[in-house]
Design brief:
By secondary structure, the chain is mainly beta. It is built from one helix and 15 strands. The longest helix has 21 residues.
């Protein structure tokens, strides 16, 4: 009887050890980079940019114009940084009929110091909402479904619309250049027949995140 008890004990220990070895390892917390945000977000330039002074790879800092929420429930406060980089930058010269500035967006900085990696392209560009002046640009194209990314600047019509502070905000469904003369946008690249592509600090951008 004692021998049978010892055999059963050893058997149970062996089974427990085997289960412990076959248990899957716990995955580490991926932090904000494991969350996802899709759709469109509205941002403003944190500083002025000029294609004559920029080069490929230079950082383009912007700030969100509204509170965002990811599909996993992470809240990104208004004014959070969305960081992009220059993909191309040229000034107009004898060999180039236009100046060009390409921008791609890489990450959103969320509370806690973690970065959320994104793949964002320029969908629309407009002036600083607090600057006065007539609307001279035009927007076209179809509306986009705003997925899990949300923006406080949502509206119904294309183009510029009144903002909360009295300034003019870009409708997040707009595409192209809105309210700025002599500037075009195609495939996330801004072009101008002027000497350079230049946007002032506070200029608005709508980013499409895939």
């Amino acid at each position: 009887m004692k021998r049978l008890f010892m055999v059963l004990t050893f058997s149970l220990l062996a089974i427990a050890a085997g289960l412990g070895q076959s248990a899957p390892a716990t995955q580490p917390d991926s932090g904000a980079s494991g969350k996802s945000v899709h759709g469109v977000i509205s941002v403003s330039l944190a500083k002025s940019i000029d294609s004559k002074k920029l080069k490929e790879g230079d950082e383009i800092p912007t700030k969100t114009l509204g509170t965002l929420r990811t599909s996993d429930g992470v809240t990104i406060p208004n004014g959070s940084m969305v960081i992009g980089h220059v993909t191309q930058a040229t000034a107009r010269s004898k060999g180039d009929p236009t100046a060009a500035l390409g921008i791609a967006f890489d990450k959103i900085q969320v509370p806690g110091g973690k970065d959320m990696m994104i793949k964002g392209t320029l969908q629309a560009v407009g002036p600083n909402p607090n600057e006065s002046g007539p609307e001279t640009g035009a927007a076209g194209g179809n509306s986009l479904h705003a997925g899990n990314g949300s923006t406080a600047a949502a509206g119904t019509g294309l183009g510029l619309q009144p903002g909360q502070g009295g300034g003019k905000m870009i409708d997040p469904h707009a595409t192209g250049v809105v309210g700025i003369k002599n500037l075009q946008l195609e495939n996330s690249v801004l072009t101008s027949t002027g000497k350079e592509v230049k946007l002032d600090s506070g200029s608005q951008m709508v980013i499409k995140i895939e």
